[in-house]
Design the sequence.
């Protein structure tokens, strides 16, 4: 069945909020929009406000919600990939520069949603010098393809388990 995607796909509809609640197992908080969708239209990544309604600063602007994608990222995290990527950042200057640019891009995207002093200059996932969460990197790559080289790599490595162009909703 076709999912009813809003006219502006970046907007979160009531149906999207229902799916997010199902994916997260709780009511979604601080939803600013949908940053990436499955081919079927359902949300993969939620764009989240930098300050939640209860006042908590929230640095993870792009939050991975699709259960299949979450499991794939969790599986890759157990493989030692984060340590390996962090080591490569220390050795590969071009990669480090591109990852720093991804960090700056992440901050600029978040700034569009409002300035939150407590997390000023702090992005997510270990950026800009480390890799601490593959869910964050995968979400960033889904929301902004081609911006985060390590996020794009995570997506490619996840492909045997989960990929955005094959609906498993
Ligand atoms: Zn789907």
Sequence:
């Amino acid at each position: 069945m076709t999912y009813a995607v809003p006219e502006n796909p970046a907007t979160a509809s009531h149906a999207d909020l229902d799916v997010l609640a199902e994916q997260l197992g709780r009511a979604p908080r601080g939803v600013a929009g949908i940053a990436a969708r499955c081919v079927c239209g359902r949300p993969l990544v939620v764009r989240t406000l930098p300050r939640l309604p209860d006042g908590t600063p929230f640095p993870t602007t792009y939050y991975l919600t699709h259960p299949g994608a979450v499991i794939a990222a969790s599986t890759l995290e157990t493989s030692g990939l984060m340590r390996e990527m962090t080591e490569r950042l220390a050795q590969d200057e071009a990669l480090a520069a591109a990852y720093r640019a991804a960090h700056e891009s992440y901050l600029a995207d978040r700034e569009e949603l409002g300035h939150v002093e407590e997390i000023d200059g702090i992005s997510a996932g270990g950026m800009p010098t480390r890799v601490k969460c593959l869910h964050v990197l995968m979400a960033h790559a889904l929301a902004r393809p081609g911006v985060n080289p390590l996020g794009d790599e995570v997506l490619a490595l996840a492909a045997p388990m989960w990929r955005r162009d094959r609906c498993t909703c």
Helices lie at 14-24, 67-77, 81-91, 93-111, 134-143, 149-158. Residues 14-158 form one domain. The CA atoms of residues 1 and 40 lie 8 Å apart. Residues 93-111 form the longest helix (19 residues).
